[in-house]
Design goal:
- By secondary structure, this protein is an alpha+beta fold.
- The chain has one domain: Butyryl-CoA Dehydrogenase, subunit A, domain 3.
- Strands 4-3-2-1-5 form a five-stranded antiparallel sheet.
- The radius of gyration is 28 Å and the shape is elongated.
- The two termini are 28 Å apart.
C-alpha cells in the first residue's frame, strides 16, 4: 500500500511536466512549419513588370512571387525558384537556417521522445523515481538545446532584415539586385513562437523535483521500524 501511495504521489506531482510535454510537441511542430514557409523575408519591389504583386517572398528553400508573366510549372500565378545549400549566391544566414533548423527538428524529436518515455514511467510505474528525474532532465536539456539551435538562424535572418541586407540572386530568379524595402515575414515569427514554447517546456522539465514523501507515510514507517527494533517485539516474535 505504501509503494502504491508513493507512486500515486509522484504521479500527482507531474502535472506541470505533462503540460510541458504538450508545449514541447507544439513547439516542435511550429519549428517544422517555419522551416517550410517561404515568408521569412518579404521584399517590396517597385518594378511590377514581372513581379505583378510587387511582393516577393524569400524563404530558406525557395523564392516565390505572384506573376502573370512567368509562371512555374504546377502553379497558376506563382513563380518559384529553389535555393540550394551549395549555390554560390546563398547567404550564410540562409545556409545556416537550412542546416540548423533541420538539426533543431532532430534534437526536438529526441526531446519529445524522451518526455513521452519519462511520462510512461510515471503513469505506468515501471521504473524508479530517480529514473523519472533523470528522464525529465534529459528531456529539458534536449528541448532547450533544440530551441537554442533554431534561434541562431531565426535571429540571424531577423538581423539581416532589420539591417536591410540584400541577396544577389542570379538572373533566372528574376528579382532586382535589392528590394525597395523588406520586412520580417511570418516564417520567422512562427519559428520564434516554437522556440519560446520549447524553452518554457525545457525549463519546466529541468526544474522538476521529486516530491517529498507524505508525513503520514513517514510516521507510519518510523513506527514500524521502532516496533521491529523493540526487544519485546523480538521476544514475542520468537515465541
Amino acid at each position: 500500500m505504501g509503494n502504491f501511495f508513493t507512486a500515486q504521489h509522484v504521479k500527482n506531482g507531474c502535472h506541470a511536466q505533462f503540460g510541458a510535454l504538450g508545449l514541447a510537441c507544439l513547439g516542435w511542430m511550429l519549428t517544422g512549419v517555419a522551416l517550410g514557409l517561404i515568408q521569412w523575408r518579404v521584399w517590396q519591389v517597385s518594378d511590377r513588370a514581372v513581379i505583378t504583386s510587387g511582393v516577393a517572398w524569400v524563404g530558406l528553400w525557395r523564392v516565390c512571387f505572384a506573376s502573370h508573366t512567368v509562371v512555374s510549372e504546377g502553379f497558376k500565378v506563382m513563380y518559384c525558384r529553389y535555393i540550394m545549400l551549395t549555390d554560390s549566391f546563398t547567404p550564410p544566414e540562409i545556409a545556416a537556417g537550412q542546416v540548423l533548423m533541420l538539426l533543431s527538428l532532430l534534437v526536438g524529436v529526441c526531446g519529445n521522445a524522451s518526455g513521452v518515455y519519462s511520462m510512461r514511467i510515471v503513469y505506468f510505474g515501471i521504473g524508479k523515481n530517480s529514473t523519472v528525474r533523470r528522464g525529465f532532465i534529459l528531456t529539458g536539456v534536449l528541448c532547450l538545446l533544440a530551441a537554442a539551435i533554431s534561434l541562431v538562424p531565426l535571429l540571424w535572418n531577423l538581423s539581416a532584415v532589420v539591417t536591410n541586407q540584400t541577396i544577389e540572386f542570379p538572373p533566372e530568379f528574376k528579382l532586382p539586385p535589392a528590394p525597395e524595402s523588406q520586412h520580417v515575414g511570418g516564417g520567422i515569427g512562427v519559428g520564434m513562437a516554437g522556440s519560446v514554447l520549447m524553452i518554457v517546456s525545457g525549463i519546466i522539465f529541468c526544474t522538476y523535483r521529486l516530491p517529498k514523501r507524505p508525513l503520514r507515510e513517514q510516521v507510519h514507517q518510523e513506527n514500524d521500524t521502532r516496533g521491529e527494533d523493540n526487544p519485546t517485539f523480538e521476544f514475542q516474535e520468537h515465541l
